[in-house]
Amino acid sequence: MGMFCKTLKGVLTSTKCLMVGLLVLVTIFIIHLTRIRTETDRTESESISFIDKYGSTHGIMSKFFSSVRDYGKANIDHKKPPLGTSRTESQLKSAKTHEEGLVKIKEKKPKAQELVHTSQNVTKKVGFTIATKRAPPKHYITIDFKGRLGNLLFQYASLFGIADKNYLIPVISENNELRRIFKISSQSTEKNRVHYGKTFNEKIGCAFEPAAMKLGSETNTKLNGYFQSFKYFKESEASLRGQFRFKDDLQKKAVSVFSELVAEKSNTKNGPVTYIAVHVRRGDFVNNEHISKYGYVSPGPDYLQKGMGMFRANYSNTVFVVASDDLPWCKENMKGNDVVFLSAGNTRDLDFAVMTQCNHMLMTVGSFGWWTAWLINGKTIYYTGYPRPGSQLAKQIVLEDYRPPEWIGLP
């Protein structure tokens, strides 16, 4: 009996020791997990602060540029209505009288940078967060600007997109013409005088060259060419629209002119009004024999009537806002109670800003009309007869690179 008691006592003692040992192990394990969680949270916090400072939906651009999509239109609801619908009377309440017709500008302030694409900078593995920080860009990229407004817009937009893709800092001159019209926020070449060790020369003016998107980030680079393809800046579109917001004084003037121009035509008895901008480029395309032979061509009245007819068929109450370098021709060939014409005395910049107040676009030819359509960002009808088939100009344009696929072509 005594032996049994001693044995039982030994077993109980061993069990007690085992339980104490297990308790110690559990305590150590909990402490270890707590340290891991603390370290993980700290590392995530560090990586988030880095990404928030340098990250962007469109790459590095948010460090230098606003990603605001509302680029400064009037306080008229310019959300593009679906096919068969258009704007209500209350959305153009200023169109009845001149005094009440000045629509107030309502520009949204740039939103705070959002935390995005964390997967590119943070790798999670087995409960740990490993921060892989990317240094801010150190090298610059610029472009030799040439041509008129439409050309300049293509060059800046492509510079912007190429810089974004290659992790470079885009810079342009402080006195660049675009700064006078838009709220461009890129750095200036005057403040960043650098040696450009690489030059990229485009091969075709209206084509997309993928090599431009693979320049790398290790060398200051200069672009040379027109770069007239939407594909260069398609991935950076939202940020780019933030760059192409009109300066306040031009925006106010455009809203005022637009409101007065359409006031008499904005009759909502037949339903809400849909506004369509029409830009007719003629001038040297028609009157210069050398340019015409090279392949530049402007459509005739048949194309314009078909385009206007298509909009009229899809929207119950339309107003066409026409700008042109040949207004007498337009007034002769564009008839209708729903047509208004911008004054021949307006500046180019004012016509441009006024047309972007519309919902949709009927364009003829030229980069000025192309950019009007892009800024409006609604439905666009374009002329398929440009460039002249078989011409020298036709060899310089890759049409699928030049025109967005959602635009509608008419002969």
- Contiguous low-pLDDT stretches (5 residues minimum) are 38-131
How many strands appear in the DSSP assignment? 13
How does the overall form come out from the CA principal axes?
extended
Largest sheet: 6 strands, parallel
Q: How many helical stretches?
A: 13
What is the mean pLDDT?
A: 79
Physical arrangement of strands within the biggest beta sheet:
10-9-8-11-12-13
Distance between the termini: 113 Å
Task: Tell me the radius of gyration.
Answer: 31 Å
Give a written overview of the molecule.
This protein has 411 residues and is of the alpha/beta class. It is built from 13 helices and 13 strands. Strands 10-9-8-11-12-13 form a six-stranded parallel sheet, with helices on both faces. It has a five-stranded parallel sheet with strand order 5-4-3-7-6, with helices on one face. The protein has a two-stranded antiparallel sheet with strand order 1-2. Helix 6 crosses helix 11 (348-355). The protein is extended, with a radius of gyration of 31 Å. Residues 38-131 have low confidence and may be disordered.
